[in-house]
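The records we work with from here on pair a chain with its fold. These numbers are not coordinates but entries in a learned vocabulary of local backbone shapes. To see the layout at work, look at the sequence and tokens printed below:
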Amino acid sequence: MQQKRNWGILLGAAFLMATSAVGPGFLTQTTVFTQQLGASFGFVILVSIILDIGVQLNVWQVIAVAQKRAQDIANHLLPGLGVLISLLILLGGLAFNIGNIGGTGLGLQVLLGISPETGALLAAAIAIGLFLVKEAGKIMDRFAQGLGLLLILLIVYVAFSSAPPLAEAAIKTFVPETIDFVAIITLVGGTVGGYITFAGGHRLLDAGITGEAALPQIKTSALAGIVVASVIRVFLFLAALGIVARGILLDPNNPPASVFRLAAGNLGYKLFGVVMFAAAITSVVGAAYTSVSFIKSWHPIIQKNENWVIILFISVSTFIFVTIGQPVRLLLLAGALNGLILPVTLATILVAAHQKKIIGTYQHPRWLTIFGILVVLLMTWMGGYTLITQMEKLF
């Protein structure tokens, strides 16, 4: 019975990470990059998946062995570092959550014909409802799993409807015509950047699945999360490629909706509404839960009233969207900062992985350390480049 319960939590953590990554930005990024790069975008996806695996295996294992949240590990290494990381992730999570709330509104607008603001309020009420129940963690796990499976099924259907050139996609995934490093950094930042890196690891920690004995299960959960996010991205790429390969231009105002409509007509457009809503509301839940997990250790009152703080986080995100709208500058800067948060947090985890005062007698795999260092160097370089580019565009 305990083993069955653990698998439910492990799958929940995997889907929480995956669905946190699959938000409105995820849908847009994938379709836009497919239009720009064509079948060669498959190579970008392949590289990003490999980098994602390196990040998640490092982070989840060290958190589990240390039995501490990422910010507490950071504070143990250098007093104040955890507070800085917490602030960056909290602000970034809030900025992205405004976009996620907006995504729920757009999805319900397509489905129900209501305004995005009304849709956002309705979606926020649903998300808040999850954290009002007694067993919020268990309900959150089931919610992420159910909507995650729905996302996969709908996107697979649209991918087959668009009839993509599979042979060309397979060849150019390994032998691309062009390599776009900005696309790679955007995808990695979007799937394991900011709060997303720690969504699953912190969920397992809260559920008590920790220690060296649990590492095989934790590795499986981390890889499952990467697989879920990657399957959705691959089939969304194929759906978009099927349209782009015919020479049809996507609507620049809403590229993913354009793919769904062109692939499957009006039914496809309605399916887009379901996909957008499901992707956005699971990201709302994941962003709120994980962002608040970074400030739980600040004060016992936050720890004791965690669900109410999460509800406040969702409420503030919704209020800003409904009253002000999407703060484009904030979202762009948050996206650029996401690329810088990952190397800082991953570097911290890698140093901690070799500190006996944190991990005891545990021996972190050397290959994972080397892999992690390479990811840190690449993300630092590309994250800095992206931030400078975004700042130049804005100012």
